[in-house]
Predict the structure.
Amino acid sequence: MSEQSRHDRTEAWADLRRIARREYLLLVQAGIAVVVLVAIVWVRQAFFA
Amino acid sequence: MDAFWQVAYDALVVVLLVLVATGAVPVVTAAIHFLVVPLHAFINHYGKAEPFTPNVAVLVPAWNEGAVVGTTIDRLLELDYPAEALRVYVIDDASTDDTPDVVRAKAAEHAGQVFLLQRQQGGQGKAHTLNHGVRVVLGEDWAEAVLIMDADVIFTHSSLRRMTQHLADPQVGAVSGYIAEGSRDPNYMTRFIAIEYVLAQLASRRAQNVLGAHACLAGGAQLHSRANLEAIGGAIPTGTLAEDTVATFESQLHGRRMVFEPHAVVLAEEPGTIDALWKQRLRWARGNVQVSSMYRKVWFRWGRGVHHLGNIAFGASWFSIFLLPFAMILSSIGLVGLLLLESDLAQLVFRALWITAALTYIFSMVLGVQLDGRVGRLSWREAFLFPGAISFVVMVAALFPGLIEVQLPALFGMKLLPEGYFWLTLGIYVWISAAMAGAALARMIENTKAGRFLSPLLIYLVGYGPLLCAITVDSYLKEWRKADTVWIKTEKTGRVLG
């Protein structure tokens, strides 16, 4: 394996690990959506129940 | 006799409640689907993926794509992918413009990497055009994977490499990327489509990754392993208007895993008018009607075979979209019937239905606008008004009792009379069905002088979701009447982001 292809492969592994890690962001994004829902339900219960 | 009428009355109320409940099925299914999305953080295919760059033959079906095909080829050759492992085959479907000349020039410029394949007789549909290319690439030993794409889409720099890394797992038969709306000059319609693609791909296809069954790997970016293509017969199935869906189903029925790669971004030019969208989606919707019938022995047969297409969750998700217009109409009928017979009960079930819908909508949209930052910034208004401004008000009315019908009129010193309240309630109950008629009206007037202004306004009022439902209804009617299954190509102008 040439130096260049070894470098490319290392880069490719780094990118793969980066995008796999980025999937954990889904938990934060879903958490934000849940917080918005809870806020709306709280307003309903507090002022419109 | 009184007892008989009482039983009949109670039975009628139960029937009406069941009708209302049909409207809840797609809502609950969608809610479950979106709640599954975050699980993709843990349940995904990255653990089995690794850097892998097989020889890829790219098949580009082209009919009168002279305006876009040159750029498409250039962008493909600039991809972050080993040049010696990439070949581009443009299959000209008897174009009448300069498509063959453009491709021929590119083939001369990049000898051994770009090829022009020509069909003498065109117009049979995308699957036939693709199969011309599939026969050529499978006839040689070179290709280890085949990428099927549309002539107008632009693959971003690392997209292909991010897709091929999943093929390192021999269990994976095909991989698809995220087709993002990428028009350079977006309008209201492309912004609606952009947010729809976020929900239907970045959210929904992640959920399908988790559930292990895929409805459709996008035909604009479908990467097959050679073994998978050979397993499904060495050709893309013809005979329907949904060749990408059928290829996805067949691959899974042959025991291969499908993977959606959300970080492989492919930009596409999408319709900018209601009429163009209608024609494109009518083709897709009719294709789905055909697929529903074609795989009738697959649905809800959990545990049969190596695939997961028989899963209850997958079937519920497929039919929730397929039968959504029916569910909306039946739900409206149920609510109106209950309003006339048991108005308090009607109000109770209406609130339960619309509060569930509102919470699902809020969760999906707040999640959706975060999944693709570019689309979120561009289309946040359309995300907000996806179900339509009027449905938005109905959701507010359901969530916050008294706000619309009491407190708002009171601000102007007004009070709703009982008759006014009845008609307002009736209007709200039938709205989910009436919205589809409003969307159809928007299409009818689009090409009139006033329509240029009124049609977008109508879509913002009635919603983009009901527009898609109206198209689905049209697809039922066209299939029922066995209207010609003509392949109407979506017109492209090359205005995709470079």
Notes: Residues 2-36 of chain B form the longest helix (35 residues).
